[in-house]
Amino acid sequence: MEDLETIQEFEGTMVVYEQEKALIDSQVATAKHYPRNVRRATENAIAIVTMDKETAATCTYSLPRGGKAITGPSVHLANILAQTWGHLRVDSKVVDIDNKHVTSEGMCYDLENNYAVKTTVKRKITNSQGKTFNEDMITVTGNAGNAIAKRNAIFSVIPKSVINRVYKAAQEMITGDISDATKLIARRTQVVDGMKQAFNVTESEILKSIGKSSIDHIGAEELVVLIGYGQAIKDGDTT
Fold first, then answer.
1. How far is 63 from 74, CA to CA, in rounded Å?
2. For residues 54 and 62, is the Cβ–Cβ distance under 8 A?
3. What confidence score (pLDDT) does residue 117 get?
4. What percent of the chain has pLDDT over 90?
5. Which residue positions in the chain have pLDDT lower than 50?
6. Degrees to nearest 5, angle at CA 110 with 81 and 49
């Protein structure tokens, strides 16, 4: 009886494998027959990220590290680029959970160029006292890890020159028109007040996070960093 069950399980696995292989072969054939237009894909991504300030703001993140801000393109920008770039198979999943970490794996396969990348991300599931998170928080942490692993895989496949061009367009949209002092002050007030309300932080805490002593010292670069902090908090990348 056990032998029969083993055979049936093996046959079921083979059916799934053959179905998946046929699907990939079909997608590869389509990608080869209709190759992507790099310029159009890039311009479409720029059109999406510059649609409005809210969309642009999701395209960057900032993390405090060693007293400095690390800023870069976010998970949301990776998703937009993957959609416009086309001919990609993208996936992410939790592959391991131990007492201290959850490990996520991301995959991006360029069907047209036959180039695939896998990335792994480890996220802590213990608090400052060393106590393991509850089940819901482990799930949340795993989802955040999956998103980051997927982002890293996508950004390893799509050319960096394309990523940088789209990211720069998003950054310019984030700050908006700050060509004179009046416009800069208005945008600065909007961002700072928004962070106070959204995250219950004080002006001094905001200034400390970017290493500035006064609101008057916040310029375009600092605005991008602050907005990136907000997005990283929303995405679960930092607290």
1. 11
2. no
3. 97
4. 55
5. none
6. 5
